[in-house]
Amino acid sequence: MKKIIACLAAIFWGLCIWGQGRYTISGYVRDDKSGEELIGAAIGVNELPSIGISTNAYGYYSLTIPKGKYTIMVNFIGYEMLSFPVDLTGNLKQNFNLTRKVKELNEVVVMSEKRNDNVTKNQMGVEKLNIQEIKSLPAFFGERDVLKTLQLLPGIKSAGEGNSGFNVRGGTTDQNLILLDGATVYNASHLMGFFSVFNPDAIKDVTVYKGSLPSEFGGRLSSVLDIKMNEGNNKEYEVEGGIGLISSRVTIDGPIVKDKGSFIISARRTYADLILHSLVSTNIIRDSTLKDSRLYFYDLNAKANYNLSDRDRIFLSGYFGKDVLGITSFGFDWGNSTATLRWNHLFDNKLFSNTSLVFNDFNYTINNGSTTHPINIISKIRDYTVKQDYQYSSGNNNQVKFGFISTFHKMVPGTITTSDTNTIRKSLPIRNSVENAIYFSHDFRISLKLTANYGLRISEFSLLGTAPFYIYDSYNLIDSVKNVIDSTRKVKSFVRPEPRASLSYVINDRNSLKVSYARNVQYLHLLSNSTTGSPTDMWIPSSYNTVPEISDQVAFGYFRNFKNNNYELSAEIYYKNLLHQVDYIKGAILNFNANVESQLIYGKGRAYGLELLLKKKYGRFNGWISYTLSRTERRFEDINDGNWYPAKQDRTHDISVVAVYDLPRGWTLSGTWVYNTGNAVTFPKGAYIIGNNVVFLYTDRNGDRMPAYHRFDLSATKQFAKKGHYESNLNFSIYNAYMHDNAYMITFRQNETTRQIEAVQTTLFRIVPSVTYNFKF
Amino acid sequence: MKLLSQHITKRIDRDQFHSVSEMKKFKSQDYVRNTMAVVCICMLITAFYGLTSCQKVISIDLNSASPQLVVEANVSDKPEPYFVKLSNTVNFSEITEVPAVTGATVEISDSSGNSETLSETGDGIYRSSTLKGTPGHKYTLTVKTGGQTYESVSRMPFPVGILNLKVKREADNGPGFGGSGDQSVRYVVNYEISDPVEYKNYYRFAVYYKNGIMMSRRVFDDQFHNGKIIADDFELHDTVNFNPGDTVMIELQSIDRGAYNFFRTLREGGGGLSFLSASPSNPISNISNNGLGYFNVCSVTNRMLIIPEK
Questions:
Q1: Interstrand relation of A176-180 and A223-229 (parallel, antiparallel or unpaired)
Q2: ipTM rounded to 2 decimals
Q3: pLDDT by residue (tens digit) across B131-166?
Q4: Contact assignment for A767 to B273 by CB distance below 8 Å
């Protein structure tokens, strides 16, 4: 610890010395209409072409350059470029307001220098999604979805039809850290995963890191999905919304005090149940069991911010969502809630501080729908987090980030409550743990063409009481720890350093090469007994049995822009080595098992692949083609004789094609086509008889494949002419337009008459048309 | 879709390795996990578009596996003939005629030098005549067939007494999850046994009905109850309908670890719905040379019980 502080101090001192005789220009970049801060806006200096930085997650920038006269250029996608002359004779505070481009039908795109950010920036394995991009793509049931759109990018694969879970570079779905304004979202799904919890109207920015994670992030092996909520318009009030077949949403935002603070509230609810009830009651559907069905979700996003002074700004944001499902004798509700209080402070124009207090909760309740004999099973995960980040900018492209994070996790895997005294009450033990990390990273330019970043994160995880804790050797209990009574005492601790580094070499303004390495550690593990993922999947902390998972990833990338930066091509290859992966013993029982760790086995994994992305960003016709060739394998002593075998999420080929075409008279057409190799699965190879029962014969784990998955979605949007402040559009979407029967699952059964074994394929969606009306005023 | 949920529920009902209380949970969890997604979405789609045909039988070309020997061998401390049944695995297309393995040499020997070659009675069944099982002795099963030798070694555990055993009749529309309501009664066996502290013990309850048909069974161990009284319950359920006044024989088998692992991982009739399990696999066999099945050497305690009227 002392060494690290000394190290940090040395870096600072170095930076300060370097800073002598130079001045700093700093401030915020904002949208001139709404006052929203713009994240990732590029700042360049015309006279110093080697300098290029971008605004941080709060829209703040800081640039230190020698005294002199310059033209500062500020650029952000979708906005007019701003040139601003300065005569730098001292430190300068300068905010920039950018104007959103008016979309004209015969738009002539003005070329800006910073359109080649993808080539020149020292980052790889990062995908950013523009919310406007999401809004123009086909939507399932008319609900635009951040997570679904991400799955169209290379290296990010859908975990299954209608599943908001995703696999990044061969990682499992629990190896993604999903953050909403800094709060962990443990289950990002609505309606068992057919929709995600992120309402696009409330979202400002989506960034996914699939390669080398910045040192400020940790706790998961594969990726970080960092989602920032909108801040709201601080100049005038706005209402935005949409009305669809099964859901509607509305967003209101506006100033709290003009130019000082703003708020946004966004709400969404599905009403399929109401329609269903009316169909049942009018006898259109003759199934009386559906009469009492409950089936909906709702969510609410709210955020407020206020400028206390030039140097201080506070934010308060929250999310609350809930799903309610139920039929006559069965109910299942689940939901997430998060709250984030954040304070941005500028110590001086070089040191930016961000302090956050975060709370998040995920819980589910299963009930039997009985009023006379109610039984409830309640499970929850709750985190309390304190996070402190500092960002120090100095000199020519020199930036240091450092800080700490501390999280208390409380996991209640399952508590049964009942009024019926005859039923055995069995509750699973509550597990508390603490996860801490300190980090720093340094971004700097070695030469005109070479940029480097290195960083270190040191994380620590402690499992807290109370006893007993059992120690197993694949299924068999070998020892136990029983003397820990105090629930605040540490019983088992792990400390793991996580070094990360990247290097980028700009060959010229159209070509660059990048390389990165990162070690990530994960202390929480998700146990899932199904292939599709469900809210009832269980999180467990690292313990005496399950040690922290570790991944080492190296990636190499080539980036090239063509035709005046109109086309972007990126090619990345990666290799990942995974340690202490978790799988299950044969015939494992995970559900409501107090001794669930006895069902686990541990092994290794590896993943490697090639990702290609060709993107046309500008013009009336735009879109991308993404292709991933990959392999993901695991090795466990007790599975397939200890040989490498394909992981469930192993997919050889994965292709996405996305096209958007702006037509005259306000029409936009878009289409997406996806194709991927089926998941690796285990099918029975034959059968035998034990007693009088048929037992299926299995040979290799994951030795079979689901059929290849492919689907074409289509959407048409008509933008109506603006009337005063009122804007509106009508969107028609068709999901699975050519009606391909994709296999959701394949099961085997014995035909009751012929006694033959047959394979049965279940298809979820043949074709799903939908229509949504969106408005804004 | 309804079919699917019935199918799953049936599958869960057939799972005989859970006590009634666990069963309820199991039901609920899997019900949630697997059916709700499908059911609710199909409800939606049916409601809006009526375009769905959720399920269809498809043909999958499964690489056929070469036949493997399946052994079902039982030895107990009861003075009666012991049986070994031999069969082969088959491809799916041959499931209606599973071939018996005939002409094999089946020998069981014990640690005190007794040995017997079992005589074949037809249909792949081999029968002992002189062998007598004794707790504490080690037994070796040797099967020679098709030029291969298969072996299994098992020590007979000591018998464990039953403290308390009764059958209770319960209304099935009680506070369970997803109760279908079409089965109005069920029978639950409550048991109490005193686990000896000296050994690691593994247990199996077997229930025999009229004609000696074995129906329900349940396996458990003393991992978390060593030396304590183990009290739990399990449900009697099968396709056979019980009648009040019928006699059932309940047998507590004290089994060894190999047999326990087999029965624990055997999901009768089950494995097919592979999506229910994260790790579909064969039951763990205690037969060498890649043989499937089990060699169960157990000591037993029997009780006769009468199905109650109320």
A1: parallel
A2: 0.81
A3: 889 999 999 999 999 999 999 999 999 998 888 888
A4: no
